[in-house]
Amino acid sequence: MGIKVKDYYNVPYLEELADKISAVTKDFNKEKFFELTKSSIEDLEFNQRQELVAKALYKAFDVEYKDIIDIFTKILGDELRGNSGAFTEGWWLWPIGKYVELYGDEYFDVSIAFSKELTKRFTSEYCMRPLINKNPDKALKILRDWSKDSHERVRRLSSECLRIRLPWAKKLFTALEYFDEYFEILNNLKDDRDKYIQKSVANNLNDLYKEDPDKFYFIINKWKSDNISKECEWVIKHGSRNVKEG
After folding, report:
1. What is the pTM of this model?
2. How distant, in Å, are the alpha carbons of 75, 176, 217 from that of 213?
3. DSSP state, residue 61
4. How far apart (Å, rounded) are the C-alpha atoms in residues 62 and 74?
5. Which DSSP state fits 137?
6. For residue 66, what are the contacts with CB-CB under 8 A and spacing of at least 6?
7. Using 50, 70 and 90 to split pLDDT, how confident is the model at 194?
């Protein structure tokens, strides 16, 4: 029987994370961090553990948000290539993303730049959503550029963070409210050869169908009217998996 995901975030994890941070800064109060986390973390469920660690990080630093993000950047480690590995190699970064999700929306430029770096080692769709919600025009311009980025993990993020019904997240309706920009981003990705990106675009379509079938069919019909690639055919088929016939 495999270990539950929540159980990766235990007392030894706290010690390893604290050691990584302490190795690059003197502005981290390791004792306070442990005082806030060690006694309770193993009694909590997954999301509660993430929030506990993120909130403890917030209280264990006595420097500005930008300085904390600089510290986090130093411990990220090497980039991953391809879109696998987030939950085999990058899983330990989840509370770092949660920290940005909870505290980063007042610092758009710093947070979105860090999100781009984080996704190259883990994933950033959750910490991106408050940024999109607060600054949709600015965020969508950046996501449009990311949808054409040379790094496949960045391209995937440009799609995944915009999903209306992203699991474990509150609904985000930017896709409906800024549909032209949203469509342009998906359009840039519909022929991508990376299977994880194809799945992300298809999941966007599936979410869209559940919220606004007219917009869903607009995209589907538009793509079918072009010279369709085999990648796009797969995206449409997978994205239409819940379409009711008749």
Report:
1. 0.94
2. 43, 11, 6
3. B
4. 18
5. H
6. 107, 110
7. very high
